[in-house]
Amino acid sequence: MPNRSVVNALARSFLAGDMTAPSIASRGATALGRSWTWLRPLAERFIEFIAGGTRPRHRDAVHFLLADRGFERAQTRHQLSVAQWLTAPQRMQPVPLAANWHVPAIESVGALSDWLGIPLTDLLWFADLKGLGCKQPAQQLRHYHYRILTKKSGNIRLIEAPKPRLKQLQRRILTGILEQIPLHSVAHGFRKAYSIKTFVAPHTGCRVILRMDLCDFFTNFRHARIQALFRTTGYPEPVADLLAAMCTHATPRDAWRGLDWDVDRAQLGEARQLYSRRHLPQGAPTSPSLANLCAFRADCRLSGLAQAAGATYTRYADDLAFSGGEAFERSVERFSLHAAAILLDEGFQVNHHKTRFMRQGVRQRLAGLVVNHHANLQRSEFDRLKATLTNSVRFGPVSQNRDAHPNFRSHLEGRVAFVEMINSTRGKRLRIIFEQIHWP
Question: Which pTM value belongs to this model?
Answer without folding.
Answer: 0.84
